[in-house]
Amino acid sequence: MTIYPQRPGEKDCAHYMLTRTCKFGDSCKFDHPVWVPEGGIPDWKEVTVAIIITIIIFMPMKIISYCIVHLLLVIVKLTCILTILYFIESYRVKHM
């Protein structure tokens, strides 16, 4: 098994990540993580800082908006139930 240069902090070598081989060898300027399995990771995609920041910023907003929508739906349902109970009680009191 060939050991390619370890350069922590550098971008991962895309070809190495996909195949676990690198045609540039020791002269490659990218990182070659040793944890990559034999044969590479066929569906590997580079994750950029911009993608990570987007996930961090927008996922919580989606989760919060989802929760708010469902909370509003619960409030509407409770309001309907309380209104129905009020009318039932009013009808019962009038007709007793």
Structural write-up:
- The protein folds into 2 domains: about 1-45, no CATH class; about 50-95.
- It has helices spanning about 15-20, 50-95.
- With about 100 residues, it is an all-alpha fold.
- The longest helix has about 45 residues, at about 50-95.
- Helix content is about 55%, strand content about 0%.
- Count of distinct strands: 0
Number of domains: 2
CA radius of gyration is 29 Å
Strand-pairing-aware structural class: mainly alpha
Order of helices and strands: HH
Low-confidence stretches: none
Largest sheet: none
Number of helices: 2
Separation, N- and C-terminal Cα atoms: 90 Å
Level of helix content?
40-55%
Overall pLDDT level: 83
Percent strand: under 5%
| Overall geometry | rod-shaped
Provide key terms for this protein:
96 residues; 2 helices; mainly alpha; single chain; 2 domains; rod-shaped
Topology, element by element:
Blueprint lengths: L13 H6 L29 H46 L2
Report a brief summary of the structure.
The chain has 96 residues and is mostly helical.
